[in-house]
Write a structure and sequence with these properties.
This is RNA polymerase sigma factor. Pfam families: DUF6596, Sigma70_r2, Sigma70_r4_2. It is a single chain. The chain is about 70% helix and about 0% strand. The protein has 21 helices and two strands. The protein is globular.
Length: about 425
C-alpha cells in the first residue's frame, strides 16, 4: 500500500472510532445535530488534506476533535450567535476555547453524564418517529453509511436518506435541548433508546455489509452506552436486560471467526474461547433485572435465551425446550416475523426440523420477510436436516444472493455446495 493509501486507511479507521464523540461534542456547542455532523465532516476533509503531507498525528482523535471545535466556534462567530445569545453561549464558548489546548487524552475523556448519551437521547426524542430515531442514532453514533442503515431496516437507500435528512431538520426546527431528559420524561424515552442501542450493537455483531462479519467497535460502543444507561436508571429492569443480552452475545466474539476471518456458527464454536468474564457480567445483569420484579420484558427474555446458551458448556447440553418456551413468551409480548423465525429454529431443535419448517413456511406465505436472507438460510438448514438437499441448496444460494456481507456470502455458498456433495 502506498503512503497516501496507508494514510487514508488510518483516517478511515480513526473516523470510524471517533466520529460519534466528535459529533456529540459539537452538538453540545452548536445545539444542532445536523450542523454538528457537517462541521465534523469539515474536520475530516481537513485531515484528508493535511495528514498525507504532514503525517498522521500522534493523537489523531484529539486532532480531529480540536479541528472540529475550532470550526464550530468559527461558525458561531460567523452567524453572530455569540452576540445574539450571549447569555446562552458566552460562558460555554470561553470554557471550550480554554480547553482546546488541554492534554489530548483529556480531550477525549467522557464522564457518566457523557455527550454520547445526551446525543442518543436527542436522536430518540419523541418529536421524531420511532424509525427516524433509530436511523438517526445509527448515523450519528454508529458511524454507519446510509446504505448500511437502509439494509438494517430493509428499506431502499433513498428512503433512508430522506428519513435521516428530515429527522435532523425536525430536531433543528424543534430546538431540542442538548440534555438527558428529566426523571419524569425518562420512561417515555427509554424504550426508544434501548432499541437504538441494541440496533447499534447488532450492526457490530453481524455487519450488514463489507468484508468483515463483525464490527467489534460498534459492539463495544453499544455496551458502553448500555452500561452508562444502567447507572443512570438503575431501577429499570429492561435496561439491565439489554445489558445482559449484549454482554452474553459479545462474550462469543473470540470464537465467532477463525484465523482467516471465516464465520463460525454458534453450535460449532469452541466455547472455551468465549469470554467468560463477559458471560458472568451478563448473568449478573440478568439477575438484577429479575430481582427488580414483574414480568420479564423483551430484552430480559432475549437475555434469558442467551443465558441458556451460555450455561451450556457444550452445544449438545443446550436446553432447547426452555429456549422454545422463552421464544413463545417473547412472541406473545412483541410479535414480529423475525422473532417467529428465531422461534422456528428453537422449535426445530426442541421438537424436530418439521416443527420449525412449518413455522418458516408460514412466514414465506405471509411474505413479510421477503428479501430477508436469513429466512432463506433457516429454511435451507431445515430442509437439509430433512434430507431435501436439492431444495436446501436453492435456499442457501438465494440467501447468498441477498446478503451484502462478503463473509456471510461465502459461508452460504459453502453450505449450498455441501448440499450438492450430499
Amino acid at each position: 500500500m502506498s503512503g497516501t493509501g496507508a494514510t487514508h486507511s488510518a483516517i478511515d479507521a480513526v473516523w470510524r472510532i471517533e466520529s460519534a464523540r466528535i459529533i456529540a461534542a459539537l452538538a453540545r456547542i452548536v445545539r444542532d445535530v445536523g450542523l454538528a455532523e457537517e462541521l465534523a465532516q469539515d474536520a475530516l476533509v481537513a485531515a484528508l488534506e493535511k495528514w498525507p503531507r504532514e503525517g498522521v498525528p500522534d493523537t489523531p482523535g484529539a486532532w480531529l476533535m480540536t479541528a472540529a471545535k475550532y470550526r464550530a466556534l468559527d461558525e458561531l462567530r460567523r452567524r453572530k450567535l455569540i452576540e445574539r445569545k450571549q447569555d446562552e453561549y458566552g460562558h460555554e464558548l470561553e470554557v471550550h476555547e480554554a480547553h482546546l489546548h488541554r492534554d489530548s487524552h483529556e480531550a477525549l475523556d467522557d464522564d457518566v453524564g457523557d455527550d454520547l448519551l445526551r446525543l442518543i437521547f436527542i436522536a430518540c426524542h419523541p418529536v421524531l418517529s420511532p424509525a427516524a430515531r433509530a436511523a438517526l442514532t445509527l448515523r450519528l453514533l454508529g458511524g454507519l453509511t446510509t446504505d448500511e442503515i437502509a439494509r438494517a431496516f430493509l428499506v431502499p437507500e433513498a428512503t433512508m436518506a430522506q428519513r435521516i435528512v428530515r429527522a435532523k431538520r425536525t430536531l433543528s426546527e424543534a430546538r431540542v435541548p442538548f440534555e438527558v431528559p428529566r426523571a419524569a420524561e425518562l420512561p417515555t424515552r427509554l424504550a426508544s433508546v434501548l432499541e437504538v442501542i441494541y440496533l447499534v450493537f447488532n450492526e457490530g455483531y453481524a455487519a450488514t455489509a463489507g468484508d468483515a462479519w463483525m464490527r467489534p467497535a460498534l459492539c463495544e460502543e453499544a455496551l458502553r452506552l448500555g452500561r452508562i444507561l444502567a447507572e443512570l436508571v438503575p431501577a429499570e429492569p429492561e435496561v439491565h436486560g439489554l445489558v445482559a443480552l449484549m454482554e452474553i452475545q459479545a462474550s462469543r466474539t473470540p470464537a465467532r471467526v477463525d484465523a482467516q476471518g471465516t464465520p463460525i456458527l454458534l453450535l460449532d464454536q469452541d466455547r472455551s474461547r468465549w469470554d467468560w468474564l463477559l458471560v458472568q457480567r451478563g448473568l449478573t445483569a440478568l439477575a438484577r433485572a429479575e430481582a427488580l420484579g414483574g414480568a420479564l420484558g423483551p430484552y430480559a427474555l432475549q437475555a434469558a435465551i442467551a443465558a441458556c446458551h451460555a450455561r451450556a458448556r457444550t452445544a449438545d447440553a443446550t436446553d432447547w425446550t426452555r429456549i422454545a418456551a422463552l421464544y413463545d413468551a417473547l412472541a406473545q409480548l412483541t410479535p414480529s416475523p423475525v422473532i417467529e423465525l428465531n422461534r422456528a429454529v428453537a422449535l426445530s431443535f426442541a421438537f424436530g426440523p418439521e416443527a420449525g419448517l412449518e413455522v418458516v413456511d408460514q412466514l414465506v406465505t405471509e411474505g413479510e420477510l421477503r428479501g430477508y436472507h436469513l429466512l432463506n438460510s433457516v429454511r435451507g438448514d431445515l430442509l437439509a436436516k430433512l434430507g431435501r438437499t436439492t431444495e436446501a441448496r436453492a435456499e442457501f444460494e438465494a440467501a447468498a444472493a441477498l446478503t451484502r456481507n462478503a463473509r456471510e456470502h461465502a459461508l452460504l455458498l459453502d453450505r449450498a455446495a455441501s448440499c450438492s456433495s450430499q
